[in-house]
Amino acid sequence: MESTPLQVRTVTEAxxxxxxxxxxxxxxxxxxxxxxxxxxxxxxxxxxxIREALRLLEQEQMVVAESRKGFRIPVPTExxxxxxxxxxxxxxxxxxxxxxxxxxxxxxxxxxxxxxxADEALAREEWPQVIQWNNQFHQAVxxxxxxxxxxxxxxxxxxxxxxxxxxxxxxxxxxxxTTHRQHREIFNAIEARQEGxxxxxxxxHIWDSLPLALSGLSSVHHQ
Length: 223
Description:
The chain has ten helices and three strands. The protein is mainly alpha-helical and 223 residues long.
């Protein structure tokens, strides 16, 4: 019996989500080749949906295709990492300050709820969920800033955020807990309507992970 287009698409979407989770949790390190054969064995699906899933991930720049070689996880340069963190610190700091000034009570409640969910995922060491709530925290703060263009800009940076997180979290088991504590500090400042403190805490949070990302990059080059 032949598979229908709907069945193929459903399997492809499932494969896409699973491969994406593997990348975000560090199963595949920056620079590592992502082999179709390995994925078919790991996920128990045929090569066609695996290949289509990798193409979707290529569009998100989570993998790069090299002619006749396959797909691999991209490796940023040190200057690219520094430039990215510089930009993100400014944007996240601005978003937190505006959230402290503009957030509605409902938006403050949503951020509090996201942090509670992150608490539970962290306690269970469910890393894909921890990453999900980590992203959701930053999205909720951006939305609470009241600046739609800012929120859209930060959303477009999410792929690089996810990839650089692998560099800064791999080999640093304490980092997720540190990140969560820093999120709490940002939220406390937003809830207290302390714009300057919210900006400072958000900027510090971003800059604090830069040395870890650079350390992770150095490890990749020495493998």
